UniProtKB/TrEMBL annotation:
<dbReference type="InterPro" id="IPR036890">
    <property type="entry name" value="HATPase_C_sf"/>
</dbReference>
<dbReference type="GO" id="GO:0003676">
    <property type="term" value="F:nucleic acid binding"/>
</dbReference>
<dbReference type="GO" id="GO:0005524">
    <property type="term" value="F:ATP binding"/>
</dbReference>
<dbReference type="Pfam" id="PF13589">
    <property type="entry name" value="HATPase_c_3"/>
</dbReference>
<protein>
    <submittedName>
        <fullName>ATP-binding protein</fullName>
    </submittedName>
</protein>
<keyword id="KW-0547">Nucleotide-binding</keyword>
<keyword id="KW-0067">ATP-binding</keyword>
<dbReference type="InterPro" id="IPR011856">
    <property type="entry name" value="tRNA_endonuc-like_dom_sf"/>
</dbReference>
Amino acid sequence: MDKKTQNFKPLKIVATPGHIKTLTEASATKALSELIWNGFDASSQIVTVTLKYNSMEGLDSIIVEDQGDGIPFKDVASYFGEIGDSWKKLKKDNYHHPLHGQNGKGRFKAFCLGADIEWETTFLDQNKYSTYSILGNHNQIEEFKTSDLENNDKGQKGTRVIISNLFKKADELIKDKTLNELTKCFAVFLTEYPNLQLNFNGVKIDPKSVQICSRNYDLTEDCSYITDHSVTLTIVEWDIETDRVINLCSAKGISLNEYEPKNRIKAKGFNFTAYLKSEYFQELENTGTLGLAELEPTVKTIIDIAITTIQAHFRKRISEKYSGIVQEWKDQDIYPYKDKSSLTSVEKAEQEVFDILAVNVQTFLPNFDKTETTSKKFMFKLIAQAITENPESVQKIITEVLGLSKEDQDKLAELLNNTELSSIISSATIVANRLNFLDELESLLFGDKTKKIFTERDQLHKMLENEAWIFDENFTLSQSEERLETVLKKHISKLGDREDTIESFDPVLLSDGRTGRIDLMLSKVNQTRHGEFDYLVVELKRPSKKVDAEVIVQIKKYATAVAMDERFHNVPAKWTFLAISNELDAYAEEESNQRNKPKGLIHDSSQQNITVWVKTWSEIIANARAKLQFINQHLQYEVTQESSQKYLKEVHGKYIPKCIDNI
């Protein structure tokens, strides 16, 4: 022991009544559930809850009774005298079923139901049954009292918890929803252990009696980078109304915490509860971090993976619901999709959107069944094409072509919104278009025939004005081909209350006295630093022009002109200048590969908050393609020469050199 501390006296940490009372905060059903769990944890095969009423038909007391091992008199101090620890921690590894809670806090939740609680318990010790009581009062919550030990000749172990002097919150247990809430709470556990039984006020809890279906999904592989423990998802659909909740459970289905997805899951017409099961959650619960689900990033990530699976589950369920009608359309040869052995995720999304819409169109159109087959086929083809090429136009077809009433239009629009699939299709279109652009831009920049005639000003520049995402998707085009002072005016105008006005600006001069011109200026969409702006200034060179000393001097002059201009002293802005061409000459290569600097960085001024970079088109395209391919792993879009040329011709046809035969 350190000499400084050997004479110190220890101070015992004591939980104050105020702190203990914070542990009583819970809903009525949650508090009751804790007592039920304690009964099962005591090895009881049956736990029974009874509500006792007074002569005025008001709730008088609540009794939770089990046939478990009871609480040994010699262990009562460890059972009731400690918070943050529990006998369950010692037995959890060799117990016959999983134990709920291990921190000794659950018993306090019962005090939200009533002021007085008695645990009347009987246990077996040396072949002799003994009974005693433990009393607790809300006003003296920091102290429990025990009665004297008495012999019991009945030969029945167990614990009877009586809650009396009830609070108003206890009346919530009288409501019909209590039975449903208990059913949902213990659904997975009672399914895992069918030999156990829970009775509530004379009714046996039977999870399957109110279940429409239950399906399991293995998320272990998806979550393998987070935890080595298995992660499974059980989705239970109910034929009763219920709040949508994702229960975070131990591996055996004991609910440890809840997450409310609110509007994150679109599944109109379905009542369900999800159970995420993993021993990983139990570990987090043991360390006290599971309750911080919103702050714990790994839990949030697992929940996000689960929500994606839940959404896919209900898309499939909707498809199953409509499968009979779809088969009729296939038999009539009016269904616009052909059977394929494998579909991409985008094709599946398109088909699912169509099925949802088409089934409801048939419902809302009173004379659909009497319509000629050719008309039905044309109508379906029109909807399918709109979904594929322009999901937003579906609403217009519903309104103007089908002639539905306003009420029916709204219903169909809500259905489309609830699927969240139109956004998938729209995203797929964006990714496909960008991949096509990269493919054909590469051909134009590096083709033996095209790179000599592909000019920077009239062609490359004009295309990139509409494809500025290629440099950085966080930036958008702010200015194009403007003199440097116009760029500065644009920036100053965003800063608000300044004496400088746009009209008063004089030209910004380079070091040699000439005025500078920039090709593209991009500004950051989401400003992460309050009051500070990020700008990216791009200098383009035609494919046949290498980045050399002349280009480097030019781009540095632009940067220096911004840094040294007196109007920008102490202005909160971050400037990035970038020069791009097909190749760098030997000098530029040397400048762009400096020790302890990222590749391409040739100038970094912390004082002026300016960096200057030089890069090749190969680097720019490879980086952009890598980001898109990561997304495309799920969308499975295949770029072909035909698709890339088609996109470039439709979007940028007027900027393509006329002599290129294949465009």
